């Protein structure tokens, strides 16, 4: 009888353990989050004077362009994502549908952070933030007239703020992010290393003074991260043509200069931000995906770093520019097929973290969002759920 009870207890413990493991999501599905949909952030007012961030561009599209085909509306309304109660709802919906990481577009202009209220006041203060991981993509591009629809058609290349920083400013940024974000318990890590993604490499190099200087600065960043108690830094490059080679880099006799360039800078992984960065998006979604899969395979054989597959929901930035390349037939059904292809890629690379990135949670003005809308309802979110929750 005693042995029977002992066996039963062992069985129950093992069953509970298996159940607990089964509840853990197998894949990390990370959606980029563009933090411009915030109310009462004074630094957003010069671009969107209504005080609701870039919702203003969405809300006024038909008024500015009567009869234009683009007429999207958010089912949750023009919400303030810097409100922790709103973000709590978004976290619940994201996790329910299989998104368990937000990659925050993170900005630093004019010597200080920009658009941080969604992250600091919304996400980090949400009462359920423990359900969700996050990491930063430093969007270190220039700010042009494009954000302000009143100026978008007037000298679109005019630089309002530059994304370049010198070494002193770079160190200030890194030290701040290590303390403020990397040490947060919800910050996303791979093998214990905080993940930090950089968007624009030419801007980084230009600001720091050259490739050698940039490599030294990034190596310093890694050492500072280790000093803070982490095993290292997972330095992630945004993969697109402008980032993968540089005219000032001498690869010598090496037959793979792109790979050597990325290694020289010290990047250890990469992913994409948007299909528009590397293929013609003025096409049918299924045609685009053929190019995407070829790109995944090319990266996999070209570079030594780890590639995490990326899937974009769509592309159409008409709300900002009126005329745009337009991704066609990017239905939730076709998006779901793309997610399955990304899942297959991950499954074929069992030695790497099962991370997939998606553009995006809320890029409304580029028409690449998971959030529910008047056209597809919850279709895109349901597509993620079908692939990564229902089939677990």
From TrEMBL:
The keyword Cell cycle does not apply. Keywords: Signal. Coiled coil: none annotated. It comes from the Bacteria. The keyword Signal applies. Residues 1-20 form the signal peptide. Pfam families: Glyco_tran_WbsX (PF14307). CDD domains: Glyco_tran_WbsX. PANTHER family: GLYCOSYLTRANSFERASE, RHAMNAN SYNTHESIS F. This is Glycoside hydrolase family 99-like domain-containing protein. It comes from Coprobacter tertius. The lineage of its organism: Bacteria, Pseudomonadati, Bacteroidota, Bacteroidia, Bacteroidales.
């Amino acid at each position: 009888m005693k042995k029977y009870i002992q066996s039963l207890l062992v069985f129950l413990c093992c069953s509970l353990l298996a159940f607990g493991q089964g509840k853990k999501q197998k894949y990390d599905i990370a959606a980029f989050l563009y933090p411009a949909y915030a109310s009462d952030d004074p630094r957003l007012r010069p671009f969107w004077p209504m005080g609701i961030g870039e919702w203003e561009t969405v809300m006024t599209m038909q008024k500015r362009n009567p009869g234009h085909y683009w007429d999207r509306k958010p089912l949750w309304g023009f919400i303030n994502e810097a409100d922790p109660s709103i973000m709590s709802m978004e976290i619940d919906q994201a996790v329910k549908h299989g998104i368990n990481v937000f990659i925050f577009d993170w900005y630093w202009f004019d010597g200080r952070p920009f658009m941080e209220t969604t992250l600091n006041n919304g996400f980090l203060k949400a009462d359920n933030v423990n359900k969700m991981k996050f990491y930063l993509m430093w969007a270190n591009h220039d700010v042009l007239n494009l954000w302000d629809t009143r100026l978008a058609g007037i000298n679109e290349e005019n630089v309002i703020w530059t994304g370049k920083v010198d070494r002193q400013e770079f160190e200030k940024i890194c030290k701040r992010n290590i303390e403020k974000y990397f040490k947060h318990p919800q910050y996303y890590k791979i093998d214990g290393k905080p993940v930090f993604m950089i968007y624009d490499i030419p801007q980084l190099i230009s600001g720091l003074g050259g490739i050698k200087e940039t490599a030294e600065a990034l190596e310093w960043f890694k050492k500072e991260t280790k000093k803070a108690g982490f095993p290292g830094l997972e330095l992630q490059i945004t993969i697109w043509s402008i980032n993968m080679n540089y005219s000032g880099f001498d690869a010598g006799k090496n037959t793979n200069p792109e790979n050597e360039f990325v290694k020289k800078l010290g990047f250890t992984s990469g992913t994409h931000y948007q299909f528009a960065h590397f293929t013609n998006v003025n096409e049918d979604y299924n045609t685009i995906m053929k190019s995407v899969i070829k790109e995944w395979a090319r990266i996999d054989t070209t570079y030594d770093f780890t590639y995490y597959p990326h899937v974009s929901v769509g592309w159409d930035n008409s709300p900002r520019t009126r005329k745009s390349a337009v991704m066609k037939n990017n239905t939730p059904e076709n998006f779901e097929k793309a997610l399955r292809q990304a899942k297959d890629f991950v499954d074929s690379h069992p030695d790497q973290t099962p991370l997939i990135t998606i553009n995006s949670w809320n890029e409304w003005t580029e028409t690449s969002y998971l959030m529910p809308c008047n056209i597809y309802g919850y279709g895109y979110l349901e597509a993620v759920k079908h692939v990564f929750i229902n089939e677990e």
